[in-house]
Amino acid sequence: MKKSNIVLIGFMGSGKTTIGKALAAFLNYTFIDTDEQIECQEKRSITEIFKTSGEKYFRKIESKMIKEIAQGQKQIIATGGGIIKKRENIHFLQTTGFLVYLDASIEQIYQNLKNDETRPLLQGRNKKDTIREMLEERKPFYVQAADLILPVDKRSIHDITKDLYLQIKEVIE
Ligand code: S3P
Asked: Which ligand 1 atom is the nearest neighbour of the CA of 47?
């Protein structure tokens, strides 16, 4: 069955936004980043939302946002790394979208995020240990939800985007 959206899923720092933007430009699709939409709607950063309203509140608006976005067409959707925490999120995304898991290793994620301060769930404790623990817990859910698994370690954005395009061109409407 043909799908109208391509949905990028995966851990924080796996390149969903960067690759999503490149693919959207190439296909002339609309690029949507769920975190950006949430920040825009809430008029505050993800860090601020976590700090003042808590993760539970964030997850609630994240699910609402996903439900809304999933209704659009010809979109490349970059999702937050935590969307697999709720089955309903995956369900809505799958109805209109082809889900691609950007599969990055702990080392790659750490390299991409070692200086990052915008991910509230990775602040505080030892960053690499936190990434390891969270990825171990989440990876089975990413794999299970995915229509396609794309390894991204040590590859250029251009190479990943081209590979992704070749693998999805039969699937999109
Ligand atoms: C989160 C990932 C973040 C953002 C929030 C929570 C997570 O998005 O939604 O900080 O639980 O993995 P990115 O995956 O775009 O960093």
From this structure: 10
